Amino acid sequence: MRCGDFRTTYAADAAIFETPISRWATVGFLVALAAVPAVASTYWLDVLNRVAIASIAAVGLNILTGFTGQISLGNAAFLAVGAYATAAMAGSAGLPFVATIPLAGALTALVGMVFGVPSLRLKGLYLAMATLAAHFIVEFVANHWDSVTGGVNWISVPAARLGPLALDTDAKLFYLVVPLAAFLALFAKNLFRTRVGKAFVAIRDQDISAEVIGVRVFRYKLLSFGVSSFYVGVAGALVAYQARIISPENFPITLAIDQLGMIIIGGLGSVQGSIFGAAFITLLPEVLRLATGELSAQFPGLTDLFAPLRTGLFGLVIVLFLVFEPDGLAARWRLIKAYWKLYPFSY
Amino acid sequence: MSRMQRLQLTLAAVLLAPALALAQEIKVGGIFDLTGITADVGKPYAQGVRDAVQWVNENGGVNGKKIRLVDSDYGYKIPEANATYKRLTGTEKVILINGWGTGDTEALKAVVAADKVPYFSASFSAHLTDPAKTPYNFFVGPSYSDVLRAWLFWVKEDWKDKSRNPRVAFFYGDNAYGKSPIEAGRRFCKEIGIDLVAEEVLPGIVQDATSQLLDMKQKGADYAFTQVTVTNFSVVLRDAKKLGLATKWGSNTWGFGENLIAVARDAADGVVAAMLNPPFGEGVPGMAKVVEFHKKNHPGDKHDTNYVRGWSYVMVWSEGLKRADKAKALTGEGIKAALETLKDFDVGGLAAPVTYTSADHRPTTKVSLYQIQGGKIVKLSDQEQPRKQEWLGL
Amino acid sequence: MFFAQLVMNGLVVGSIYALVALGFVVIYKASSVLNFAQGEFLMLGAYVCLAILDAGRVPFAAAFLLTLAFSVALGIFLERVVLRPMIGEPVISVIMVTLGLSAILKAVVQCVWGTDTRPFPQVFPSEPVHFGPFPVSQGYLWSVACVSVLLILFTIFFKYTREGIAMRAVAFSQQTALSMGISVKRMFALTWSIAAVVSAVGGVLLGAVRGSVDGSLAFFGLKVVPVAILGGLDSVLGAIVGGLTIGVLENLSGGYLDPVFGGGVKEVAPFVVLVLILMVKPYGLFGKVKIERV
Questions:
Q1: Model pTM?
Q2: Given an 8 Å threshold on Cβ–Cβ distance, is A295 in contact with B179?
Q3: Phi, psi of B119 (to 5 degrees)
Q4: What is the mean pLDDT of the segment spanning B201-214?
Q5: CB-based contact A308:B35 (threshold 8 Å)
Q6: What's the rounded mean pLDDT across residues A298-316?
Q7: What beta strand segments (E) does C24-133 contain?
Q8: CB-nearest partner of C96 from A119, A264, A312
Q9: For the segment C156-165, what is each residue's pLDDT rounded down to a tens digit?
Q10: Pick from C86, C92, C225: which is nearest to A65 by CB?
Q11: DSSP class of residue B364?
């Protein structure tokens, strides 16, 4: 019987999976996921794809906000950049997705770094304001650069393509989105075992001390904006392939708030937490929709309440988490694991 | 009801629902705006659709089969409509959809055609009338473009000073709905000799339209047409009154109605607009059942022209379902074919008679113009637009 | 003439921005919290006033006072339940809590009053007042008056009254203030009440000017962010100057640039200015130069 973790080497301390069980559980989970398209309906596949895409974006945001301590309200705008870049590259240029997705990520990283420049002088609240402004400026561009974005109307995106292979159904797309999300999550997890990742954390914890111990604060802040925006750009590319029709309405300011909500609920500074949060926030309205839909026969008028209920529940969840569980679902999950690890002798 | 009880009810309902479902049902999807920026008109419309479905079911159904309306609120958001559409067709397997806005309808038109799902929406965008491009899109009423043409025609008649052409300005929202008829309007102005002097773009939420109005005033417009919603139009009208402008205002159906008088008050006087459906309670033959239903089920509610519009939609597509069912072809393709047999189909005056053919989905080109005079909506004229081939889809 | 009229309109519309920004600033001044739910306070104020007017035959003045009383209660309640546990938490938590609050308030309004556009009774005569060639809506005139009165009131309040000075002490250092016998909690409750009241005044005025009330009123919460930053987050005078400036800027860009760009410039211009200010003078025109630099 195991009765706790005892780490005797630094390697063990920095391991991604703390125990073999957690490693095999993760592998098992991924294998089980691979079988999902065989049984799930298109609707649930659509939801799962959205969860995976949201996870990528949330991991990206968490790198910036949770790990480096730079608050960003510009995530919706960065998603838009990735999505519109993909629409342009996949549409007229007809590039395959192996090219468009990394390119969209790279372009978004560039844009993200430009908006990261104010972080040279600003932090906390003021940086949040700057990224908020960035959001509205990107929105304006998306609305008025008709030749690229289709303006206020919409632009349609061809299915993700690679040679003769076209990912034109939710099931096929699933096999692109989910492995990509898993890979990017693993990459992020590894990032924080490296010099770069540790520099990010140092900046978050105390920027002046970080500078003193030799971290070039501004350079690493920009790098953090870059890495984070790369993730968000990739997510944006996937949004484009998944929705197939994108308009500025796909990227409202509330989306940026949703994403912040994901990392708050999941846990700031936790890759795993980002995924929990993304799943939670994406599933919340769907479960609510099913509930109100099924009950609308007995309680007419419930459909009308769906939208306010969703907004209210979102707000309530955020507030409750901040007040009662500021460390998010990731901390809860650790507690549960710790409880079962020592069961029945936990206290 | 406590949160817990509600949760239990939900669970119970989720588990029991499939067992309760009836065998002889026709599933129809509804994508409505109950909470978005067009909810002020979207809600009565949705109510009309729901009530009319209930009425049809109580009065024989579709040759005995009941219609089950699976509806959902999409908050006037294109992505939300997209997701709802996937759910309605993927999980619920509906065979027809009653939708709503311009942006989402236009965004979905390619998918709808590929999936062969007849899609009725309250977007009267002329882009949806050409079956060569949008074979599965339908609406009930004259298109936005025809309405604008009818209004411009009225301007030309109303303009008495023959020494120069009347000057016109367009006000439209920065969205797909706002921009839908503008190109048609620009061309028609040239055709009949009207000077289009200004185009003013309004944001989604208009708080103050003074800067746009001042620009229009500078350019000397005598008339102005708005393609916005009641809320935004009333801001424009109030600001115009404040500035003391003599411009004569026009609007399409969504900026007009009983509510405009309530919100804009005396500033709304003189507005000329198209109404596609009569106000609730007007003495047309088809209204009797609507009023009777209203008295029986919710006599306390207030209804308007948008509610009547919901009814007119159901009257048209349920007829399509009946004809398709008779032909034993209750599929997307079958319903489309059945709808295309409608010729001058009369919905008892709830809307203009409807005609669809396989080459032309313009339901009607008749536009009824109304004017607000002293706080009352008064009918001005009926204008039958010619069914010109080159206007199809414009 | 065109220019002058745009400026004039910008000033009167800007007075509403100034009003809402005042609430923003008062909260920030006392507790260093940026309240993203300010727009919802405004919307709620307008709806409550409308509900009171609809419910009984009360004169407008009475309904208005009742609305203000409601806002005081709301401010105290929210501070107690939501904001107090946030004292000492990182900035992002505080930002998120006000964002969550805004979602809840929005939902409450939608559940209670629905999403229809509701006509607001005629409070001010619809005839505008003419200043020379410039017509101004009477509602906006009242808003200009309110802003002027509030500017004087707040200046006196923060300079001479016991509570005002205590509030500044709390903003300066919570610990020191506590040790001097000032109740920090009471001060926070007071600031939130003031902010809610100021926003409610703005909401009622806007409802009266537009003649209608709907959910889009909440949008003002985001609109005043550039206003508050421009003026300086902790300056009462700054909020007012910022409000008027942004109002004028919006109208000028709407009048001259919108026809060129096909709309939308009027809405985005304040945010472009926001970025520029953050780059050049992040503490705003009148703010205290104490922003942390890295």
A1: 0.86
A2: no
A3: -125, 105
A4: 86
A5: yes
A6: 82
A7: 118-119, 129-131
A8: A264
A9: 988 899 988 8
A10: C92
A11: -
